[in-house]
């Protein structure tokens, strides 16, 4: 039998000395500049946004600027364009996240197997996530979706079909761009989950006669549940803020077909110059995003607890 001792109960080990207040602040001191910088960079702009959300501020009316109470929030929540932007944001985020999650899971299952050149293939698969969002949107708009010389129309032209993707399917066009860009992110998270599976469990399943489909359904998929939740929530937090692809490809149109919440705030602030309403819409979006982030942090915490 092996005796187990803890550092605090080991015989002869010196008891830890309690630090004085000056020593504790001496250790925290080097971290304070970074902490103050993060607070100044993130919280001060948000406090100004909250302040302007209660002001009747319009850049085209110099006499505006007085306290307006909750009028901006009432105007934003009662605006049909805002509700249309909420619906578009939900459809856009759900479509892009689910499509990239399914594609990422398929690629992760392929890359989890050993084959010649797997490292090169993995690097190539990650490449779309490294492309700048503006450059990726411009690439898809000019090279893939162009109605005359776009690659998609070139593929389907032998069947006598020619589609103006951006005008006929604007929301689907944005979803495909986002899925192309975020699939590597999902793939990396799920690949980490696949490679953390205990190999002896998979070997025992094979010895018991379980096929690949049964092994995936009974062992792999339950093991990936936390990783799927993490990928789903992190992807949702990032994709709900999409602006670049909409600005570069559709400008929120045709009409309001692809106007999501970030682009709606942009239109209110820099086209209509309604700074107060734009700030109120921004506060609403931040509050909704915080709710999603809380779920994400709970999932991450539970994931680390399971690992420990």
Provide the fold topology.
Elements: H1 21-28, H2 32-53, H3 71-77, H4 80-111, H5 118-130, H6 133-144, H7 151-156, H8 165-168, H9 170-195, H10 199-207, H11 212-223, H12 225-239, H13 244-249, H14 261-270, H15 275-307
Helix pairs in contact: 2-15, 3-15, 4-9, 4-12, 5-9, 9-12, 12-15, 14-15
Family: Belongs to the binding-protein-dependent transport system permease family.
Subcellular location: Cell membrane
Protein name: Sorbitol/mannitol transport system permease protein
Plain-language structure description:
It is a single chain. The protein has 308 residues and is an all-alpha fold. The chain has two domains: 41-78 and 274-307, no CATH class; 83-260, Orthogonal Bundle (MetI-like fold), CATH 1.10.3720.10. The protein is 70% helix and 0% strand. The longest helix is centred in the last third of the chain and has 33 residues, at 275-307. The chain is flat. Residues 86-296 form the ABC transmembrane type-1 domain.
Give a concise summary.
With 308 residues, the chain is mainly α. It has helices at residues 21-28, 32-53, 71-77, 80-111, 118-130, 133-144, 151-156, 165-168, 170-195, 199-207, 212-223, 225-239, 244-249, 261-270, 275-307. It folds into two domains: 41-78 and 274-307, no CATH class; 83-260, MetI-like fold.
Helical percentage? 55-70%
The major pleated sheet works out as: none
What portion of residues belong to β-strands?
under 5%
Shape: flat
> Uncertain regions: pLDDT < 50 for 5+ in a row?
1-9
Instruction: Give me the CATH fold name of the largest domain.
Output: MetI-like fold
InterPro entries: MetI-like, MetI-like_sf
Family: Belongs to the binding-protein-dependent transport system permease family.
Organism: Nocardiopsis aegyptia
Pfam family, one: BPD_transp_1
């Amino acid at each position: 039998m092996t005796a187990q001792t803890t550092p605090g109960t080991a015989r002869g080990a010196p008891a830890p000395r309690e630090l004085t207040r000056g020593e504790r602040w001496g250790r925290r001191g080097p971290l304070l500049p970074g902490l103050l910088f993060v607070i100044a960079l993130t919280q001060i702009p948000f406090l100004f946004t909250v302040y302007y959300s209660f002001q009747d501020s319009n850049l085209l009316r110099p006499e505006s600027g007085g306290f307006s109470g909750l009028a901006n929030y009432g105007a934003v929540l009662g605006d049909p364009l805002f509700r249309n932007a909420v619906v578009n944001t939900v459809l856009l985020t759900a479509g892009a996240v689910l499509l990239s999650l399914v594609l990422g899971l398929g690629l992760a299952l392929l890359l989890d197997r050993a084959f010649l050149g797997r490292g090169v293939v993995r690097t190539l698969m990650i490449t779309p996530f490294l492309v700048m969002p503006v450059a990726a949107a411009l690439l898809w708009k000019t090279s893939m979706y162009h109605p005359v010389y776009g690659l998609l129309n070139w593929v389907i032209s032998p069947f006598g079909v020619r589609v103006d993707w951006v005008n006929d399917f604007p929301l689907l066009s944005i979803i495909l761009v986002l899925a192309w860009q975020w699939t590597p992110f999902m793939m990396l998270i799920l690949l980490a989950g696949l490679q953390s599976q205990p190999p002896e469990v998979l070997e025992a399943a094979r010895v018991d006669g379980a096929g690949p489909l049964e092994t995936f359904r009974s062992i792999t998929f339950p093991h990936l549940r936390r990783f799927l939740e993490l990928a789903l929530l992190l992807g949702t937090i990032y994709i709900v803020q999409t602006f670049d692809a909409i600005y570069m490809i559709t400008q929120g149109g045709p009409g309001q077909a692809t106007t999501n919440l970030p682009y709606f705030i942009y239109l209110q602030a820099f086209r209509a110059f309604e700074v107060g309403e734009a700030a109120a819409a921004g506060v609403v979006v931040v509050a909704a995003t915080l709710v999603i982030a809380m779920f994400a942090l709970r999932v991450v915490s539970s994931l680390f607890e399971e690992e420990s």
